[in-house]
Structures are given as C-alpha cells and as structure tokens.
Amino acid sequence: MIKGFEGTREQLLQRLADPDMIQIYNRPRVLSRAAASFGAETLGGLIHWYTNGDIDRNRKQALAEAGALEDGYPKWHQKLAKATRDDYLDAFEYLRPEFDYPLADITTPDLYDQRDRCAVRKWPRFADQMIAALSSAFRQAVKRGKMLRNPCLGMDKAHTADPNSNREWFSDELPAALARAPMEVKICLMLARYVGVRGQTIVELNRKQFFDHKHTGKAVRYRARKNNKWVFMPVLPEFQTFIAGLKVKRSDGLIAVRDDGTPWQSEKEMQTRVSRFLRGFERDGVIGAGTTLHGLRVTYAAWWKRNGASDGEVADLLGDESESMGKHYTRHVEREVNVIRAFERVKDKP
C-alpha cells in the first residue's frame, strides 16, 4: 500500500489513517458489496438510485423488466433505450471499486484521471461511454439536490471519431450485400436504406405501423426512442415490394426477426449480427471498407438531399429534432454539389 515511505512510526500510522488509504484498504470489500449498501452521499448510492436498483439485479432480468418507478424518478426505463441502459450498466460495473467515493469529493480532474486509466485498461470509446453514463446520473442528481454541479460537463472525448465512419454506401454495394445476405440481415438492411430508421427502431417496428397514403402509397408512423418524437415517414417503393413478399409473419406484426422467426433480444445483438456479416463480405472483397447499418441511414438521407430535400426536410425524414442533423448527414452531398458547380463553370473553357 505504501512504498518508499519516509518518516516515523507515528507518521506512518497517521498516513494509514488518511481517507484515501482507508479506501484502498477496503477496496476488496467494496467489490463484494451491493450498491444498495452504500450511503446516498456516495457514488454507489447514487448509481443504485439512478438505475432503480438494476445495478444489483441480474442483467438480463433487469433489462427485460421495466420495474416500478417512484414519482419524480429520472425515468431510467422510459427515457433510455435498452441498449443504452445495457451500456450504462457496463460502465457503472467498471466503476464498482469506486462506489464508496463521496459525491462531494468528485472533481473534473478526478474524472479525467479515471477516464484516462479506463481508456488504457479497456478502450477509449468505453471510457467515453463511462463518462456519458456518469454525466447522465449526475445531471439527475443535480436536479434533485443530491449534488451541487455535474463535474462531467465540458469534458472532451478520449476517442477520436473517424470522420469517414458510417459513410454513404456506394451504388453497387447494397445490391451485392442483399444478394448474399440471409433474410434476418436483409430485413435490417432494407429498413435502414429504404425507411431510414435507427437500429433501435428496426428491432421494434411492426406491420401495424404501416398504412396506406395517397402521396407515397405507403407510409409509417412511430415514436423515436431517441427524442420521444412522433415520426411520419414515406416508405419508398423498394421496401413496399420487399415487405409484401416477406413470408415470416408474426401475430404481433414484428418485421425484423431472426431466421428462426424469433425477435432479436436487443438492438446490440442485431447490430453485432449485421456487422459480422458486413465485415465478412468486406474481407471477401464483395463490399468496401466502412460499410455499416447506420451508413444506410446516411444513404437514405443522401438520396433525399440529391432529390431536392432541404436540411430541415431531411431532419424530419430521419426523425431528428434539429435541422443541423439533416445537414450533418448530407454534408458530403453538399460538397459534391459545390465541386460539380465549379466544374460546370469551366467545362467549356480551354
């Protein structure tokens, strides 16, 4: 616990009595304690409150059951998608050795130290996920007087995002993937490309949400989990033809199911299956690098942009609240237009 200490026996005993040394000494006991056993003024107590006790429950059961929430509770189940809650529980579990840490003593520099250690022990994206989980819990704690401020505010990311990730698919890639994909993957690819929905919506969408529409032939209406916004989307002809030919029809109307007819257990399970399929085809040279399910949502947005949709219209088509998101998804299309416009001005010049 202490190496290279210089001083008297009395000074050593005094050092061992310091709070940080006591915390290190008690660390093995902390790991075996349930979050519910920590006081409300500690990190463990806050996490137990924020997760409605799910941190101490069986993970699969906790994600499957909504649980009873008291009035004024921060809506752990209602506001966060199952995949997000699963990610947050992973992050909180990583922090279990720190559950006895007093909330009042948590500072932004402390969090940077913790984040940087996490990035080395795990990976940078997980470290950022950990800070996001903490920030969500701290934000609710501040609202309810459990903390004075959220020390996560203003923190930068450990992970540097690849600007080329989730790129638009090239015109020959989707037909190649669809020709070889098993039906459970093909359904997800078609929903992302021709309905433009997020992964969390793909695993929940059912036939009952589709209806006839005089302008588009078919349309779909659903509530987006991300922002709780009701979304109306036209359904492109390609998906109308595809869904009409689907043989697997469940009584609940669920569209995206596994090849055995059962629903996906979670968005994460579905995303992992699709990703493994795409990476296998990438290795075989069938499709290029960087293809993702979310990239088909980008492809959907780009198609509308090239056909005259404004940034605000693209945002509404995607079910996003901000017009800036429509611009974010189609910024590469705008650059293409600028380049073409420049060439048009010089095409007849020597």
Secondary structure layout:
Layout: H1 9-16, H2 19-32, H3 43-50, H4 59-64, H5 76-79, H6 82-94, H7 108-121, H8 124-143, H9 173-180, H10 183-194, H11 199-202, E1 210-213, E2 217-224, E3 229-234, H12 237-244, H13 267-283, H14 293-306, H15 311-318, H16 323-329, H17 331-346
Antiparallel strand pairs: 1-2, 2-3
Helix pairs in contact: 6-8, 7-8, 10-14, 14-15, 15-16
Q: Remind me, CATH topology of the largest domain?
A: hpI Integrase, Chain A
Through-space gap between termini: 78 Å
The level-1 CATH class of the largest domain: Mainly Alpha
Q: How many whole angstroms does the radius of gyration measure?
A: 25 Å
- The name of the CATH superfamily of the largest domain reads Intergrase catalytic core
Q: Count helical runs.
A: 17
Structural domain count = 2
Strand-and-helix sequence, N→C? HHHHHHHHHHHEEEHHHHHH
Q: What summary fits the major beta sheet?
A: 3 strands, antiparallel
* Spatial arrangement of strands, main beta sheet: 1-2-3
Total strands: 3
**Mean pLDDT score:** 87
- Helix percentage range: 40-55%
| Class from helix and strand fractions | mainly alpha
Fraction in beta strands? 5-15%
| Second rung of CATH, namely the architecture of the largest domain | Orthogonal Bundle
Shape by Cα distribution? elongated
Uncertain spans: none
